Amino acid sequence: MFSEKRGSMLHGILLIVLFSCAAFYIGDIPFVKKLSFSPMIVGIVLGMLYANSLRNHLPGTWIPGIQFCTKQILRLGIILYGFRLTFQDVVAVGLPAIIIDAIIVTVTIIGGIYIGKILKMDKDTALLTSVGSGICGAAAVLGAEATIRSKPYKTAVAISTVVIFGTISMFLYPFLYRTGVFDLSHEQMGIFTGSTLHEVAHVVGAGDAMGKDISDSAIIVKMIRVMMLVPVLLIISFAMVRAGAGKNKGGKEGQKSKITIPWFAIGFLLVIGFNSFDLLPGRFVTGINNFDTFLLTMAMTALGAETSIEKFKKAGAKPFILALVLYAWLIGGGYVIIKYLTPYIL
Asked: Is the pTM of this model over 0.90?
């Protein structure tokens, strides 16, 4: 019985592996590369196509394998993501970028939560959308999902908003910079790009289009935002405990509140610290990063496979309205902060 269950799980995992391999192949097509669609983004699209076509024609016993990829594989992928960062990167950019990143992340997440309340949105979807917009796109949404344990379709909806507005920004930022609408120095534009664009891939794409001087600083500023995922997840976990305690006081029995420490986030931070010592050969780290991209692609594909059109309809238009408001803040508010605050702290 146990071996049958394990075999069924392996079938589900192998299905996701095959879809992920296809995502890498599609992601390597020149047209897709120009759009800077990473294999992770392609993977979630393939997963959603599967969810809305073949899903009902395959054995239900494969579902545990798919869900394994949305949880355990996801957490491992986030831990290994730390090999892309070092604490030296933070020092290289300095205090100004850290201050600006902290302002952007804090206002975006807190503002998004309150706007979600005004829109009477589902709390999980509002939080996931806000974290994705505020920190590092899909990776942040996945990290928050693993902490709050929301339903997969809510995660997919939040990631969709990140992909849409992040992709628009990737083309919009270089255009507005070249036409002089963004009246910023190279250094300011680098900080602005890194602190306001959604995905790392979007920052790389927009930065390359504006030149190496902007690209280098933009990527480092973006990576500092990625590091902020750890304290944000710890705060979310603590807030969940407080909310649970409040419910208990309200008279609900049988509920115990305890802090759920996102160990994968701590692991992520420890890996960054280890990577900062530069103990591993560059090729080995590159191999780990490639493997990690594949793991995250598997997680994204599995999340897509849990998302049907009916669930998108259930989520409604509100997540996209929230993402649009946050997008306007990132561009407008971010520009004002960079333009008028950086002269005093750079």
From this structure: no
